[in-house]
Structure to design on (175 residues):
C-alpha cells in the first residue's frame, strides 16, 4: 500500500519514476502559484507609481521601438491598470494561487482528487494552446503545449491505473 492507505500502490513498471514525476508536477504547480503571487505583489506595487512613465522608461532602457508590438502592448496595459477593479483582480489571483497550491499539495501526497484537478485544469488550456500554435507557432508556445499535453496524459494514465487497481465492487458502484 502507498502512504495514502486508501489507494493501492501503482505506477506501472516504474513506481519510483511515477512518484518522482508526480512530485515534479506538484512542484511545478506550486511554482506557478508562487509566480502568480509575485505578479500580484508587483501589480499592486505598481499602482502607487506612474505606470505609463515606468513603461516608457522600460521601453527606452531596452531600446524598443515605441511603435513595436511589445511596446504597444505594454503601453496599452499600462493605460488599463489604473482603472482596473483591483479588488476583483486580487481575489481572482488569490483564488488561482490557492488552487495551484492545493493542487500541488494533493499531488505531492498522491491524492486522486488532485490528479483529477490537474488533468481537468490542464486539459482546459489545450484547445486554446492548439489554436495559438496554429496561428502564432513559436518554440515557446509549442513547448507549453507539449508540456501541458504531457501532464494531462500522465494524469489520465494515473487515474486509469488507479481505476484498474480499484476492487470490482467499487467500480460498479456497489458496496
Amino acid at each position: 500500500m502507498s502512504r495514502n492507505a486508501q489507494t493501492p500502490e501503482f505506477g506501472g513498471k516504474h513506481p519510483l519514476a511515477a512518484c518522482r514525476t508526480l512530485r515534479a508536477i506538484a512542484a511545478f504547480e506550486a511554482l506557478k502559484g508562487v509566480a502568480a503571487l509575485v505578479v500580484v505583489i508587483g501589480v499592486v506595487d505598481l499602482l502607487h507609481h506612474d505606470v505609463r512613465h515606468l513603461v516608457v522608461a522600460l521601453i527606452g532602457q531596452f531600446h524598443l521601438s515605441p511603435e513595436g508590438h511589445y511596446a504597444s502592448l505594454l503601453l496599452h496595459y499600462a493605460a488599463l491598470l489604473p482603472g482596473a477593479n483591483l479588488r476583483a483582480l486580487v481575489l481572482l489571483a488569490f483564488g488561482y494561487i490557492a488552487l495551484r497550491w492545493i493542487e500541488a499539495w494533493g499531488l505531492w501526497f498522491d491524492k486522486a482528487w488532485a490528479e483529477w484537478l490537474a488533468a481537468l485544469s490542464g486539459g482546459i488550456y489545450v484547445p486554446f494552446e492548439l489554436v495559438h500554435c496554429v496561428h502564432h507557432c513559436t518554440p515557446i508556445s509549442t513547448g507549453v503545449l507539449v508540456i501541458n499535453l504531457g501532464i494531462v496524459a500522465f494524469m489520465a494514465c494515473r487515474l486509469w491505473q488507479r481505476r484498474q487497481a480499484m476492487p470490482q465492487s467499487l467500480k460498479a458502484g456497489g458496496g
The chain is about 75% helix and 0% strand. Helices lie at 15-46, 51-61, 69-80, 86-108, 112-135, 139-165, 168-171.
